[in-house]
Design brief:
Strand content: 5-15%
Largest sheet: 9 strands, mixed
Radius of gyration: 41 Å
Oligomer: single chain
Shape: elongated
């Protein structure tokens, strides 16, 4: 048996259809018109016709006044379809089935599957004169292997706006074979033949019979010449492979008056009458050849659609990663003026609380030695106008600066979220840069990401908003931004306070630092206690922006490379006469570095969580959900597509 008719192939095809429809909606793809045509081919033409016992469907089509209904009545043996000299009399589809199918379940439903309308049994032929859904009846003289479909005129109306074209399209897509009837007046009408050609070749290539209603004076050679023109207009150079036969129907007034049936004469010797040719065709063979052609096109289009879906998912991943990176950048910007002196002071207290008793005694001595220096520093501050009141004012300015940074960073993040693309600038050394650039190169279809590399080693990317997030973005744009800013400012304290989590982390750091102290380190600490090195950590002043020195007796210890922040300095005040060896400096950096890093980690985490909750969560969560659901559908579609391709590759 042809593997196309295997139940497993039908199941795979149905799964392919369901997955494709779900992905179109889920990813917001812009291939909807092509997908509608693809779905119609799968649902209305392919799936029903893969079932055994389905008859051959022959649709009669042609322009206005071509004689479609007359031909239908002649072939079916019943004068039911209305005829006359005026175009557009028949306003509905009429289907003739053999009476042998009258008691067979599912045949009529499958025939009308692509029409999107429930079939109605014809009661009165006057029903055909008014617009409506398709009608059918059982013809006693029609072979059981043939179903005839009479279609309304598809060219009634002005160009670009035709009354019945959509109805005709449904019938023609459902047909296995077309019977195209034309006259001397319209045989070379390209608008008509282009429409029929699209129906014949859009998804799979179907064959057809040509019927030329012609004046009796025309010779067979003239009929052949005009029929060849029609055939080339329909199929191009492949016309000889797809035209099954050419018949002439000579003009006869008796036929026009409805007195007698249309007489068809095959061109060429040895060719059967049209109804006999239809009855002699093996419906399964015809459908198998046609369905293989349709099946091949369906599979090829599904493969392209699957690739579009993969790229759409990849674009979503790029966008989400880019948005998170952009969010982290804005978080760093918001940390520009946060004072670190409180956390260092607290760490110093924790450290000193764990000192041995002899170290504590020496620290007291160190404070006495340092007193003149502290007095000199205080005097210098007083001379510069740095009184206690001024320091309180400075603290107020610091709080205002923190608020300004917070609002500025939040505004910039919101604007990025609302922009049609997010623009990223990353150092080439940034680990994410290589990943983003490599994935961007994989986007070769409609979804493209602009990538540029500068001479300074910076990677710039412009990642467009995935269509699936357009609705979410629009909702964010309509949200009350003032209310969101108020929420952010209400949580500003988390950036200034020492949280329980930070306290626990400082305790852990102090304990860890003590465990790392070697015997030599402990001797250094004993000496340093007299010189007041360790207590000086309590006097660390954060000078990220001000760079304010504590007199001329200070030295700067650079804590570089922490979370990418630039120019992070801590000023450690110690007596200039004490000096500091390289080993002591290294130990001090090792002590303060983790403190600063811990502080920044907590603040970065807290602020990023705040920004995500109030600004980006809607897009990030929706995007992640889309990816998770689409990934499952893509995997299912890949399996179904593999099964369908196997059926194509297996000989029948």
């Amino acid at each position: 048996m042809d593997p196309l008719y295997d139940d497993a192939t039908s199941d795979a095809l149905a799964r392919l259809k369901d997955d494709a429809a779900a992905l179109t909606e889920l990813l917001g793809l812009d291939s909807q018109p092509a997908m509608d045509q693809w779905m119609a081919a799968v649902e209305g033409r392919l799936l029903p016709r893969l079932q055994p016992g389905f008859p051959l469907v022959a649709a009669i089509c042609g322009g206005g006044s071509a004689g479609k209904s007359t031909l239908f009545n002649s072939l079916a043996g019943d004068a039911l379809s209305p005829t006359g000299g005026r175009a557009g009399i028949n306003r509905r589809m009429l289907v003739a089935l053999s009476a042998a199918h009258e008691n067979r379940c599912g045949v009529v439903e499958a025939l009308f599957d692509s029409f999107d309308e429930l079939p109605q049994l014809l009661d009165d032929k006057e029903q055909l004169l008014s617009p409506g859904g398709p009608l059918f009846y059982y013809a006693k003289g029609l072979p059981a292997t043939v179903v005839l479909v009479d279609t309304p005129d598809f060219d009634t109306g002005a160009k670009g706006s035709y009354q019945n074209r959509e109805r005709v399209e449904g019938a023609l897509r459902a047909a296995d074979v077309l019977i195209y009837i034309f006259t001397n007046a319209n045989y070379n009408n390209r608008d008509n033949t282009d429409f029929i050609a699209r129906m014949l070749t859009a998804v799979g290539t179907r064959r057809c019979f040509l019927v030329y209603r012609v004046d009796a004076a025309f010779s067979d050679q003239e009929v052949h010449a005009h029929a060849d023109t029609v055939a080339r207009n329909l199929y191009g150079d492949q016309a000889g492979q797809h035209v099954l036969g050419v018949y002439r129907a000579d003009e006869d007034n008796r036929v026009a008056d409805g007195v007698r049936s249309m007489t068809l004469s095959p061109l060429g010797t040895g060719h059967p009458q049209l109804v006999d040719a239809l009855a002699a065709m093996d419906a399964r063979d015809v459908r198998g050849e046609l369905n293989r052609s349709i099946f091949r096109d369906v599979v090829e289009q599904a493969g392209r659609f699957l690739q579009d879906s993969r790229e759409s998912c990849l674009l979503m991943e790029l966008y989400l990663d880019g948005l998170r990176f952009l969010q982290q950048q804005r978080v760093r910007e918001a940390l520009g003026h946060l004072p670190m002196d409180a956390v260092v002071r607290r760490f110093s207290e924790i450290w000193q609380a764990g000192d041995p008793s002899h170290i504590r005694i020496m620290r007291k001595t160190g404070r006495v030695v340092e007193a003149p220096v502290r007095l000199m520093i205080s005097t210098a501050r007083w001379l510069r106008g740095k009184s206690g009141t001024d320091r309180m004012a400075d603290r107020g300015k610091m709080s205002a600066a923190v608020q300004t940074d917070l609002i500025r960073a939040a505004n910039r993040l919101r604007q990025s979220v609302l922009d049609p693309v997010i623009a990223l600038n990353l150092p080439e050394t940034e680990p994410l840069a290589a990943s983003l650039r490599e994935r961007a190169r994989q986007l070769t279809g409609k979804a493209r990401v602009a990538v540029q590399r500068s001479d300074t080693g910076t990677i710039s990317l412009e990642i467009p908003l995935p269509p699936a997030l357009a609705g979410r973005q629009a909702a964010l744009g309509q949200a009350d931004w003032s209310a969101i800013v108020d929420k952010l400012l209400a949580r500003q304290e988390i950036l200034l306070s020492l949280t329980d989590g930070l306290e626990d982390e400082l305790q852990r750091l102090a304990a860890e630092q003590r465990r790392r102290l070697t015997a030599i380190d402990q001797i250094r600490q004993t000496v340093a206690a007299m010189l007041n090195i360790i207590p000086a950590t309590a006097a660390v002043t954060y000078v990220l922006h001000t760079g304010d020195p504590v007199g001329a007796v200070g030295i700067k210890v650079k804590l570089a490379g922490i979370f990418g922040l630039n120019d992070l300095y801590a000023l450690v005040a110690i007596p200039a006469t004490a000096g500091m060896k390289k080993a002591d400096l290294k130990q001090l950096e090792a002590l303060l570095g983790p403190v600063a890093q811990t502080w920044l980690t907590h603040k970065l985490t807290a602020l990023e969580g705040l920004f995500e909750t109030e600004i980006t969560a809607t897009l990030l969560e929706a995007g992640r959900t889309v990816i998770d659901r689409a990934t499952g559908r893509i995997a299912s579609m890949e399996n179904a597509l593999s099964r369908c391709r196997h059926a194509l590759e297996t000989p029948s």
